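Box 3.1. Reading complex inputs
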Amino acid sequence: MSQVQELLSRELKVLLRTRECEERKLYIRICIELHMVAGPVHKKDMVIRLTDDMDPFFLYNLVVSEEDFQSMKIQQGLLIDFSAFPQKFIDLLCQCIQEENKAAPRFLLQLSSNSALGSSVAQLDVIETNPFKHLTHLSLRLLPANDLEIKNYLAACLKYIKDEKNVLQQTLNKTVEDLNQKLLSTQQ
Amino acid sequence: MSQVQELLSRELKVLLRTRECEERKLYIRICIELHMVAGPVHKKDMVIRLTDDMDPFFLYNLVVSEEDFQSMKIQQGLLIDFSAFPQKFIDLLCQCIQEENKAAPRFLLQLSSNSALGSSVAQLDVIETNPFKHLTHLSLRLLPANDLEIKNYLAACLKYIKDEKNVLQQTLNKTVEDLNQKLLSTQQ
């Protein structure tokens, strides 16, 4: 039995740095989910997914288990527990969102990749820039998805957008009907 | 330089036969395309694709080159040329469409697969049933697509349905605007 809880799914402005091209800003969708597996041992994973609404093949994943978090905590000198981590990450993202339209944002998201082809690890950093220096608050390493993962992701997107389209079609039908009704009763 | 010409894309009722389960009828989308590659040697391939609008992972492909057609012609005793083959296949499908809601169709499409998991070759037959016997007019062997092909197919579907959804949204906006305008001018 696996349960998925979505904590965040929204587009954020990201500074993209690759070896091949100059820095550029683009919008990336960041999705944060908690995957809970019930069983003899209760297991909770935090899943971070980067996608691009304009590019169906752009998909990076990071699964952080409690154990992964412990080593991340030591490496990056974090002071919080695993249970507090998702909300802390969301708070950092919100600080980036607040600053994303400023010419010199104090908080920004930076995505670094060594390959423009998307075939290698990407690093997502939350960086604060103060008058003195750049401070990296958090650094996450994400893996590009393989064909199987992209296939599953696109199937989910397709289902979602088909449902949205059906709702829209129903709204259109209902609206035309209602307004024609109104028009008819007004003309009489 | 490659050019794609779509000749047909529609859902057809198919009789599904698998080793694991009983016969059942379902709708399968059949798409026929001509892929033309210009270059030192002009090359034309006929591409046949089976998909299921309800199942994003159902995808079978067959690419028929001029050479493939020559061996198919000998094996199946066909009397037409490669250039006439696409239209002849479409004609056969039309005969199936005309009969598809009949209890005892004279022409029917049969899809046979050895595995319900879709991991093996599928055979698509156009079968005529007369009082005396079953006659197979055409027999095509299609391969299940791999993850890369499904990924590309789903990305194309997603783009198509996004465009459709946008058109629908514009229609809704325009309709509401027009009818409100009419309503307003009628009330005055």
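In summary: Residues 21 and 29 of chain A are 21 Å apart (CA to CA).
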